[in-house]
Write a structure and sequence with these properties.
Number of strands: 7
Distance between the termini: 78 Å
Shape: globular
Strand order of the largest sheet: 2-3-4-1-5
Helix content: 40-55%
Strand content: 5-15%
Largest sheet: 5 strands, parallel
Order of helices and strands: HHHEHEHEHEHHEHHEHHEHHHHHHHHH
Structural class: alpha/beta
Mean pLDDT: 84
């Protein structure tokens, strides 16, 4: 069979679907939609190979609504207009009882104007939108569209789910059954799959193609590892290499090695990685790992992200490289990252403490009569624009969440705070 194993085994019904039980399990939201036939607009966000397109095709197979697909990779404005015109005609037909469904793969690749055109169609009921994306929708999808389409997060498949898929493949696929399968160990198979169903089945394809006719396919850690080393091109930016290289990139910048960092960046660029993904990770790194040791790093990382959108590719590699080297050579501090996590942990352990009355605004007379805003000390009325007063909830004390890093910028901030704050005088 010329068709890849992943296509041969693609589920046709929700009961054959593996994984994402929080969305498709008994009583879960998407299963309820499919069973009722009432599909609301939503966006599926998750890594490659976890069932986004498969879920859309299952909806296509089971719903009575007409189903249209577009890929944002190769669809232009004209394609969008044409399919929306077709959907409008269908929605206005007396023979149509449900809104047409429009599935858009890689929806994050649509620009703002394309997304705006979708917004109007979703808003006026022309279509029910199902989008799929590997990128965080809050970065890539316009806010008005997000407000009209619920985002559902899909998770990488665990070993139990990968094993279920593996057992189904060797028992139901005629090609694998003809060979027979000699299972000795599966840990490398599942490790290289990395939670990706498509990747798991592609590995089985590779092993099958490397096995002589009439002989069983051997599944062992050694065989899987050696087969993949002989087939490096079998894995693209969406596979395990994607996660390994971005990890090496981040750790090289964290370790202040600009040469290693720029090397791993070059590997990502040559591998076809999305430049926005690289830029986004540097924005996160600037806040998490450079932080208050050099606050300008976050400004440069944000400017780099903007520059990618303004100048495009391949010139965008230049600001990416500048930012990479700047971050790698910057002093490092994770004090802000540690502070917010410590504060969140305290909030979870202490619940919703009431705001002290003196810190509350009093926009009405009733609130003022109740003591809102009374005895608040306005810092600008005091020398140095500072006065000791209570800012935490009552009976909360004055816990320390921020521990300054050992760098000049934070040492100066720490010195200033120590001169100002005397909690015992609050």
């Amino acid at each position: 069979m010329n068709q890849p194993l992943a296509e041969r085994l693609r589920p046709k019904t929700i009961d054959d679907y593996v994984g994402q039980t929080h969305l498709v399990g008994p009583g879960a939201i998407i299963r309820r939609m499919i069973e009722s036939g009432n599909i609301a607009s939503f966006i599926l966000w998750g890594p490659p190979g976890v069932g986004k397109t498969t879920l859309a095709k299952i909806i296509a197979n089971t719903t009575k609504a007409s189903f249209h697909t577009l890929s944002a990779v190769n669809s232009g404005v004209k394609d969008v207009r044409n399919v929306l015109d077709q959907c409008r005609a269908e929605a206005g037909s007396m023979f149509s009882s449900q809104r047409p469904i429009l599935f858009i793969d890689e929806i994050h690749r649509f620009n703002k104007s394309q997304q705006d055109s979708l917004l109007a169609a979703v808003e006026d009921g022309t279509v029910t939108l199902i989008g799929a994306t590997t990128e965080n929708p809050s970065f890539e999808v316009i806010r008005p569209l997000l407000s009209r389409a619920q985002v559902y997060t899909l998770k990488p498949l665990g070993d139990v789910e990968l094993n279920e898929l593996f057992q189904r493949a060797i028992s139901s696929d005629p090609v694998l059954r003809d060979h027979g399968v000699d299972i000795r160990s599966t840990s490398a198979l599942f490790r290289f799959a990395g939670g990706d169903a498509r990747k798991l089945l592609n590995i089985l394809d590779i092993l099958e193609q490397a096995t002589e006719p009439g002989k069983p396919i051997v599944i062992s850690d050694d065989v899987v590892t050696s087969s993949l080393q002989r087939n490096p091109a079998a894995y693209d930016k969406n596979g395990e290499m994607h996660y390994d290289i971005i990890s090496a990139f981040i750790k090289s910048m964290r370790g202040s090695d600009p040469d290693a960092a720029i090397y791993w960046m070059a590997r990502m660029i040559e591998g076809g990685e999305e430049p926005e993904f690289i830029a986004r990770r540097m924005v996160i790194f600037a806040a998490e790992d450079v932080g208050l040791a050099n606050p300008n790093a976050l400004l440069l990382a944000n400017a780099t992200f903007d520059a990618i959108h303004k100048i495009g590719w391949p010139e965008g590699r230049i600001p990416l490289a500048e930012c990479c080297i700047y971050l790698a050579t910057s002093p490092k501090s994770n004090s802000a990252y540690m502070a917010i996590d410590a504060a969140i942990d305290r909030v979870r352990n202490t619940g919703n403490q009431p705001v002290p009355l003196h810190l509350r605004n009093a926009p009405t007379k009733l609130m003022s009569d109740m003591g809102y805003g009374h005895n608040y000390l306005y810092p600008h009325n005091f020398p140095g624009n500072f006065v000791n007063q209570q800012y935490f909830p009552d009976n909360f004390g004055h816990p320390t969440f921020w521990t300054p890093g050992n760098n000049p910028a934070e040492k100066r901030a720490e010195q200033l705070q120590s001169q100002r704050w005397h909690p015992e005088n609050e």
